[in-house]
Amino acid sequence: MANALLKGGEHFHGQSVIKFDLNETSASSEKIFVDYRGDKILSLVVNGNKILEGNPFRDHRIYFDPKFL
């Protein structure tokens, strides 16, 4: 049986795949972020690298280092 969202449900889980082209990378160590309005993330994988360092999810954004691109 496939998972389905139920009408009126407050919580659900899923998997998202985000693909993008980055035209320029900054020479600084600024992290890249993706806006996310969920409550939490269970895991973050960027180009096959599981991000374990720090807290990648804060202030409704998921942050990661551009070195993983």
List keywords for this structure.
69 residues, mainly beta, three-stranded antiparallel β-sheet
Q: What structural class do you assign from the helix and strand content?
A: mainly beta
> In which range does the helix fraction lie?
under 10%
Number of helices: 0
Pick out the low-confidence regions: none
Tell me the distance between the termini: 36 Å
Order of helices and strands: EEEEE
The global form is elongated
Describe it for me?
This protein is an all-beta fold and 69 residues long. Helices cover 0% and strands 20% of the residues. The protein has no helices and five strands. It has a three-stranded antiparallel sheet with strand order 1-5-4, with no helix packed on it. A two-stranded antiparallel sheet has the order 2-3. The radius of gyration is 15 Å and the shape is elongated.
Concise structural overview:
With 69 residues, this protein is mainly beta. The chain contains no helices and 5 strands. Helices cover 0% and strands 20% of the residues.
